User: Which sequence fits this backbone?
């Protein structure tokens, strides 16, 4: 859906949902959306969207108009946290930090058993914590530099892979670069699985940076669990193992010794499952008010 | 009280409290303590104390025994946050981040109107977020390096002052170094107030680093207010002004444009006022349970 303008994007989304609604003969009670955007809940406005033309759009109201159904909207990181909390790795966990490693880094927080959104709904931007005060510029609409996202997202992994490949031209990663292949997460993960040391070094570096950020979140939140998802988690334990090592080296006791750092159970479906949970919660809250 | 062993320290504290209790003819209903320690609330144990011999001590139980009164204990950063929330700069504010800049950095969080403690009570260690992945070692019992505390506490300020003084020997700061004076927060602040450019540069550097950390906390929590206290805040606006500038450069909208960054109202009394609030809350919670 990239490259579309706002009205066309809204129509495309509404049409896709309407098609689903039509196949169910009126059994749909509400619609939930998880969108990659910072949200101001006071007005229901999507304030900043990094990768889609949704900036300053009242997305929920516009969708409710088109679909004639109750609509609930939240940030994609928040709905992924809801999915893991209700039906995934963090069932029954009241203090949970969710990190989604994709092109960017999504974040979600379950604190005292509830989704934490902040004062006006734009909190839990966990990818935008500075971990290197002198680090490279962040991406999209983020004006910062040295963010966790600039250092450990899929985009950062690809950038580091480029560097490692050119320094180690005889590695499989080096060969892939020479062959003109795109050094993205899936390829680097595949080469690392096959034992290429350059590819393994890249993933270890990203895993260590992930661990630096998790150590800070362990100190800040004292969570029972940190759940790591997103496409980059195709690398699985190759990423989590150096991250856990870094947490043990850096975080404070007793928080450090009382936290599980685990892979998310949901992949691409996290948004879908979490948006459904969001809609169910939203309907329940409305009925309580009646 | 530094330099004492644990039993002597406990006796000294109990005696001081008992003396106060005696002067009030039985009007004391409970005692609250704010201690510089990480706490495991499951057992009431002070797990790690950086500057006092309180590691692995069940401080609350031991004090209750000695004083024969209900005793409530929490981290010093947490009680400072309670003080500002109940009676200080953040009255009526439901989402607040407290940063206390002293020898170390204390942290406290009010989220959704309540003190946030984390899963077992050892959260809100806001000084131990890494802001420079390649930064200097942290202090006390913290095994990390490049923490906010290692970069922007009073200790870091004194370290940077040493450096700036030796590079600018003709500045007032340089003269103070040559005269063998201790280049601590109060002296650097005084020289900066008097217009010495080296001293001003030191405070600006610390203010900018403070701003880097606040920008991250703005992205993470979307707070309505960030309250900065502690001894280093003797420098006041000389510290907050560069911090605010850095937040505007680095944090994400809409959170960035909807936050006040202000000085704490309480100084040394923050711990006392907050510990009283803690004891009142604790008594109220017990009465609810009866």
Assistant:
């Amino acid at each position: 859906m990239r490259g579309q303008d706002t009205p066309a994007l809204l129509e495309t989304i509404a049409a896709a949902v309407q098609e689903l609604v039509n196949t169910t003969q009126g059994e749909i009670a509400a619609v939930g959306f998880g969108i990659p955007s910072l949200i101001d809940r006071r007005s229901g406005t999507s304030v900043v969207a990094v990768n889609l033309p949704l900036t300053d759009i009242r997305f929920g109201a516009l969708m409710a108009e088109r679909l004639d159904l109750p609509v609930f909207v939240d940030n994609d990181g928040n709905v992924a946290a809801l999915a893991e909390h209700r039906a995934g790795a963090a069932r029954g966990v009241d203090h949970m930090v969710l990190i989604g490693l994709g092109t960017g880094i999504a974040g979600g927080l379950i604190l005292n058993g509830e989704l934490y959104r902040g004062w006006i709904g734009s909190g839990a931007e966990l990818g935008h914590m500075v971990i290197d005060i002198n680090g490279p510029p962040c991406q999209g609409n983020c004006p910062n530099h040295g963010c966790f996202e600039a250092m450990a997202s899929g985009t950062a992994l690809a950038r580091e892979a480029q560097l490692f490949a050119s320094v180690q031209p005889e590695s499989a990663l080096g060969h892939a670069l020479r062959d003109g292949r795109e050094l993205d997460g899936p390829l680097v993960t595949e080469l690392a699985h096959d034992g290429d040391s350059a590819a393994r070094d890249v993933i270890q570096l990203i895993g260590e940076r992930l661990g630096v950020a998790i150590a800070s979140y362990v100190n800040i939140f004292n969570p029972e669990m940190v759940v790591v998802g997103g496409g980059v988690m195709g690398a699985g334990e190759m990423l989590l193992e150096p991250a856990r090592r870094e947490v043990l080296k850096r975080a404070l006791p007793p928080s450090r010794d009382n936290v599980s750092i685990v892979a998310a159970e949901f992949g691409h479906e996290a948004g879908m499952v979490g948006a459904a949970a969001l809609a169910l919660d939203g309907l329940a809250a409305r009925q309580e008010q009646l």
